[in-house]
Every structure is written in structure tokens, then in C-alpha cells.
Amino acid sequence: MCTRDRDRDCTCILSSKIMLLTTGTWTTTCNAAFFYQNVALNLCSSVLRLNTTACVPSAITCCRSNNGQFTAVNAGEPEKKSGEVAKSLAEELRFGSLAEDGLSYKEKFIVRCYEVGINKTATVETMANYLQEVACNHAQMVGFSTDGFSTTTTMRRLNLIWVTARMHIEVYKYPAWSDVVEIETWGQSEGRIGTRRDWIIRDYSNGEVIGRATSKWVMMNHDSRRFQKVSDEVRDEYLVFCPKTPRFAFPEEDNYSLRKISKLEDPAHFSSLGLAPRRVDLDMNQHVNNVAYIGWILESIPQEVINTHELQTITLDYRRECQHDDVVDSLTSPESEENAAGTKLKVSNGYAAAAAAAAAAGRDDLLPFLHMLRLSDNKLEINRARTRWRKKTKPRNDIV
To answer: Taking Cα atoms as reference points, which of 218, 216, 214 lies closest to residue 193?
Structure first.
């Protein structure tokens, strides 16, 4: 048998087995079928590039938990006609698409084993990375840059970039390994000095909202590192892809994400000193990635809190850039809270004070903390944050 015939026969057998795994016995397990669909798509794409005569399935189906089906990327579709813009391989295999009105973007993510922590669920850093990924993919989908974070044509011409000014994340339920989450995101204008981006996180198996997030971004000159107002030219470039009327992940009234974060008084109750950025912590704009700050903040949370609670809410104010050669201190103290009667609790010592502060605020199961990241040498503030922690539920023991 010639090499071409042998390759074609092997490809047919492998494709048939994948079809059986995807549409047969495994259809009772959505995550398994979802995984095999991804494998099949990658194999089909690779075969097409290596052997144009190989036989591949014309379409691959994958189950949803509600027993509905959808058709995935057609692996055997003909080449694009002249004048059509061909999708990249990543765009074809990515589980994301624009909404029908083109004003928001949704993408599905399978939680990988290396994205879960000691609780056997996705970490808050994993969730934050998902938010960043879906935002960047949304920007690419509508034609913004691929070499930065959502820069428009005018921004690239003037050497301008977006930087995060504030981030607020709430996670009501953390997904476990092999769970599938779907994240929807959209952007909109935020006054004259920046933009806003919101997200809604859903459990793809049942549509349940398991988290929300919102953020504010400001414009900076990449070289001078000075902030700049958003010009009408830039605003016109991105507003065509934003909702025509304001749409918010959180209600604007009585919104916890809008609360001012007080400066943490020094000395703090808990600290982790001498944290240094790693090379992998740097992003495409050559400064420390936003998610790295979250990890540093959590380093100074006392272990007894980690043992009994999980993070529900985190709000971050980014106040200064951190460079690759900086050394950082992470400081944490229980937050003083005003309860419904307007009285103020003066905290005094660590974990017990945090519990007392939560009780005084009428939230017995939530522990509130204030945080600060600062440069070790000159004590300049890099980031201030607020977190709230809820008691852990029963551990997920159904994971192999």
C-alpha cells in the first residue's frame, strides 16, 4: 500500500473512532464529548494541512447538558472565495462568537486541571485570566489589534495603550475541573477619560450565573507613561461595537463595586514582604500583568482564613505601574465596616477582628479585608484592594 493510501486509511479509522466517541456512548457526559470534539477538530485541521486527500468527517457534533446539539466547525469546507477574509485557525477552533447584534461576545472555556487549586475548583486567578482572554478575543473579533490590548487604528498611530484603573470581580460559585463556563463581555464609554468593560460568567451546563465583573480602563502613552484623555476619534472607533444604551453587569445603585477603598494603615496585621515579579508576570505592554497583583494580594491573607473561607469579592484600584525589577510588599488588615445602624467597629487584632467586623456589618459569613501592595524600597503605593470571604461549602469530592 502506498504511503498516501495508508495515511488516508489511518485517517479514516481515527476519524470514525472520534466520531463514535463524540456522538455515541460519551454523549451522556457533556464535558467528555466537549473534549473529544476539541480533539477531533484539532486532528482534522492538522490532517487537512498535511494531506489534502485524507477523508475527514464533514461535521462533528457535541452534546449539551440539555440534550440539544450544535454543529461545530465544518472540517471539510472549501477554501474561501476570492475577496473573502479567511479566519485564522484559532478563530475556527475557538468556542467564541459575537452576539447577533454584534455588541457583545461570548466564549466557552473548559476548566483545565492546572487551573484548579487546593479546593479542587478554579482559582480566582484562573477566573481573572478568563476575563482577560475573552476581552482580548472580543477585541480581535471586531478588528482591533492583536499585538496589544484592544488598541484601535488611531491609538496605534499615536502609540497609545489601555491600562486598567479598577477591577471588581464577584464569584458566586467556582467551577471545578472539566466544568464548562461561558463568559459574555461587552465594552462601553466611561466619561471622557476612559472606557468600561463588563462580564457575566455562566455555568454552561445550566445557564446559571456564577460570577460577574466590571472594570475601568484609562488611556496612556506607551512611551511617556502619561495618561491622556480619550479623543473623539478614538471613541468613534470603538463605540460602534458597544451597546447603544448603557448595560451594566451590576446595578448602578447600591453597587458594592463602586465603593471607595480606604488606604490601609501601617503597620498591617498581616504581611508578605519581598515579592519580586517574574518574567512570566509581564504582559504585552511590558508591565506586570493585572492578574499577578491578585496573586500578590492573596499571599498576605492568613492561612486560617484560607482554610475555612473562599474569596467571594475582590476590588482592585491600580495606582502605579510595577516594573520587572521592583520588589513588592503585600499588606493585609481586617476592614472597619459600618453596619446598618451606622455605627463603626474599630478592629484590633487579626482574624477575630475580621469576623467581628463582618458580624457588625450584618454579614456573619463574610470576612472583609483591606489590602495594599507597595514598593519595598520607597513605600510607594502600587495597588489597594478590598476582599470579602465566605465560608467554604462542602468540598467537591466527585472529581477524580
So the answer is: 218
Among candidate residues 287, 309, 371, 383, the one labeled active-site is: 287
Q: Give me the catalytic one of 74, 137, 285, 339.
A: 285
- The mean pLDDT value for 225-232 works out to 89
d(CA 217, CA 231): 14
Round to whole Å and give the CA distance between 129 and 114. 13
The confidence score (pLDDT) of residue 395 equals 55
Yes or no: say if 337 and 357 are a contact pair by the CB < 8 Å rule: yes
pLDDT at position 225 over 90: no
Catalytic site residue from 129, 168, 322, 383: 322
Active site residue 287: yes
Q: What's the start-to-end Cα distance of the chain, in Å?
A: 43
Spatial distance between the Cα atoms of 101 and 90, rounded to a whole number of angstroms: 23
Q: Which of 38-52, 179-193, 274-288 has the highest mean pLDDT?
A: 179-193
Strands (E), the chain: 61-63, 69-71, 96-98, 105-110, 160-171, 180-190, 194-203, 209-221, 227-228, 270-275, 309-318, 328-334, 366-375, 381-391
User: Residue 92: what pLDDT?
Assistant: 81
| Parallel/antiparallel/unpaired status of strands 69-71 and 160-171 | unpaired
**pLDDT 10s digits, 320-332:** 988 888 999 999 9
Q: Look at residue 110 and tell me whether its pLDDT is greater than 90.
A: yes
CA distances in angstroms from 89 to 29, 37, 86, 145, 216, listed in the order given: 27, 15, 9, 17, 31
Predicted TM-score (pTM) of the model is: 0.72
383 is catalytic: no
- Residue 33: what pLDDT? 46
Strand, helix or coil for residue 292: helix
Q: Is the previous residue joined to 267 through a cis bond, with omega within 30 degrees of 0?
A: yes
Question: What type of residue sits at position 102?
Answer: G
Q: How many CA atoms lie within 13 A of 94 on its CB side?
A: 18
Q: In terms of DSSP H, where are the helices of 97-150?
A: 124-141
Asked whether residue 35 carries a pLDDT value surpassing 50, the answer given is no
The pLDDT value given to residue 1? 53
H or E stretch at 351: helix 350-360
Q: Which pLDDT value is given to residue 76? A: 39
Helical H runs in 3-123? 3-23, 30-50, 89-93
